[in-house]
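Table S2 (continued). Query chain:
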Amino acid sequence: MKVHLIAYDVSQKDQAEELYAYISEYYTSSPWIPNIEKIMQGGVKYFKAMHNNQQIGITGYVLKTPTLAETVKTTVFHDFRSKGLGKLVSEAIEEECRRNGVKKIMTTIFHFNHSMVAIKLKQGYTIEGYHPDHEAPGFHEYSLGKVLK
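Corresponding output:
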């Protein structure tokens, strides 16, 4: 069982709109959802997470330095949850970063997303911080990181 990634071309309005719709649906608790114009500015590499020729989620990363990347907006769509696919999406974005010369990957995870924190810990990530009221009052996140080999 494997997940492969297909890059969004966010310079294309229809693809940016599709991505925006997914982010809006799955990140309702986030106070900082990027609008279509922000998505189209680039800087973040977004991907469709594909399994058995079906889109099962989205993921992405942004380079913080030439060798440090932060994953963003990773989600598995509701119909595909609890099937082990979150782990596979996490592995796929990690491999994508590795192919692009990244030596360390980091992520922030909502404080209530215990399943993704557990997945990341099993994959060798370490908790590097806890951020109360990170983006807004009551909005807490964990920072996790992993040195890639």
